[in-house]
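Our consortium's second objective concerns turning raw sequence data into structural hypotheses that experimental partners can test. To show how far this objective has progressed, the report includes one record in full. It was chosen at random from the queue rather than selected for favorable results. The single chain below, 305 residues long, was entered without modification.
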Amino acid sequence: MIASGVVFLDKPLGWSSRRAVNEVVRMFSIAGKKRIKAGHAGTLDPLATGMLPILLGEATRFAELGLHAEKRYTVTFDLSYQTDTLDCEGEVISRFDKQIEQQAFEAIIPSFMGEQQQVPPIYSAIRIDGKRAHAIARSGETVEMKARSITVHQLALIDFDFPRATLDVHCSKGTYIRSLARDIGESLGLGGCVTALRRTSTGGWPEAMMISLEVLQEQGEAVLLPLQHWLRDFEAYEIKQDEAKRFLNGQRIQLNTDMKGQVCVLSQGLLLGTGELKQGQHRMVLHPVRILPSAQKHFSSVQAI
């Protein structure tokens, strides 16, 4: 059976997110058979380490739950200089002789919390007229990045040893930590070049969930998180076998229930997919949203027997 589920990989330093996905695909693919489908739920730069959720098989249908989730990072940046990429892998474009005390740094932290407008780095994967911003920048063309709305829920100082500062950042999707470091530095009349970055959480999943490549190679499918666990924010809703066949055919089903909203749909303990319970004219109606092919195959074989 093709592997399906989620692994919270502790991405190694220097690896792109694509390389990490390709390595996991190699581990779980069977020689001579079609390569397993896989994808990640939120890019990490090669400079960054930490939580990279990689989804396998049918779980890839639900990658947006990670892409749209809140994130948490530990970031260290140097206030004495800045580069074109806003991290230590870029070319130095400015240096600063000014020095500040920890008290001055702590005083500006609250101003970077809450909802705000942030301009992403020009060296990013954002598309501009169909092209990646970093590709445009590397070609020598001018890149104009538009500000976007983000939210920083928590910003706590972990360590300060000028010119380096280390912060714990809890933020919304779409937040660029390199831009945050740049903006904090600029507010102080200094640089803000990221020298170390680690994602410690995606969507509230704890750091302890992360698995190293070595452990993944040793234990394989034993460390895969079942898809239903990845869908933990969806309430489970059990339907009858005859209703399951209709659901798997994409039909809406009228039900007697007080539940509403997005749900995981199960029948006899088998995950069928996700749906949404909405108020109908007389009763709640279950609308199929995503249907799992494995469930369709299962019920087809049962029906054939």
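The partners drew two points from this record. The radius of gyration is 23 Å. The chain has three domains: 5-68+205-228, 71-202, 234-304. Both points have been shared with the crystallography group to help prioritize constructs.
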